[in-house]
Write a structure and sequence with these properties.
The chain is mainly alpha-helical. It is built from six helices and four strands. Helices cover 41% and strands 6% of the residues.
Length: 167
């Protein structure tokens, strides 16, 4: 009887030790995307990814999956009801870029108030979200592929040559 109890305790202990608790600091891109897709991302901030994570994030930049639950900037008075995964991933990449240059317009790890693309021209507020997404995804891909050295491109805003900015 004692042997069974000891075996059960050892099994439970081993299972507990092998299940690494996910934190923001040990979050992988794969886990981040999975948590966003399953709407089970429970953190109030973006993970502290770095430039090494950008290629893996870019693989999701065109994803049209609609997210209903995702971390939002707590200082924003506007919360969008939903956001495409691809747009959110681009916003995450912008978070990496702005953190690397210690941009004062970033709020914590959030690169802007919202993961929303807006037109730079003040007079025209109409935006085609499909086109904005395509343009932004291509701009970030072109930006990333423009150099093998993140240090050379981190100060370049990928959206500079587009009609869009992060709101």
């Amino acid at each position: 009887m004692k042997t069974k109890v000891v075996l059960m305790i050892l099994t439970f202990a081993l299972l507990n030790m092998s299940c690494e608790k996910i934190t923001l600091e040990n979050m992988s891109v794969e886990k981040y995307i999975n948590l966003l897709k399953t709407e089970s991302y429970d953190f109030m901030a973006l993970p502290p990814f770095d430039s090494d994570d950008i290629p893996e994030l870019l693989a999701y930049s065109s994803d049209d999956l609609i997210l209903k639950r995702y971390p939002a900037n707590p200082v924003s008075s506007f919360i969008a009801e939903d956001c495409k995964l691809g747009i959110y991933v681009l916003w995450t990449i912008e978070s990496i870029r702005k953190s690397a240059i210690e941009d004062k317009t970033a709020i914590g790890r959030f690169p802007s108030l919202n993961p929303i693309l807006s037109l730079k021209t003040a007079g025209d507020n109409t935006i085609d979200p499909e086109i904005a997404h395509l343009v932004a995804a291509q701009a970030y891909l072109d930006w990333w592929n423009s150099s093998d050295d993140f240090e050379q491109i981190k100060n370049i805003n990928p959206l500079d040559e587009t009609d869009y900015y992060w709101r």
